[in-house]
Amino acid sequence: GDIMVSIAAGASSPGCEQTNECFEPDTVTAVVGNTVTWTNTDTAAHTVTSGKDVTSDGIFDSSLLPAGKTFSFKFESAGEYPYYCAVHPWMTGKVIVE
Length: 98
Fold this sequence. Notes:
- By secondary structure, the chain is mainly β.
- Helices cover 0% and strands 47% of the residues.
- The strands form two sheets. It has a five-stranded mixed β-sheet with strand order 3-9-8-5-6, with no helix packed on it.
- Strand 8 and strand 9 (92-97) form a beta hairpin.
- The chain is globular and about 35 Å long.
């Protein structure tokens, strides 16, 4: 039950947020127990940090993810989990767990 999300190439430059393509896909729907894996396909380092308005809620945080690396998180509770990149705050996404 793995769900894959790419950190898009070029996402470190503003603009991807206008087409919701900073994270691809920028919204994913999972079920309780699924693991979401983010892969950094950009050349810059990014984070996958849960929260909104660039304010961490402490649920998950990849810390700095270099190019080519992955981060996985298993979702154990239903709900909506917005997230962002702490380095590039225009980069946002969401995981919906049903």
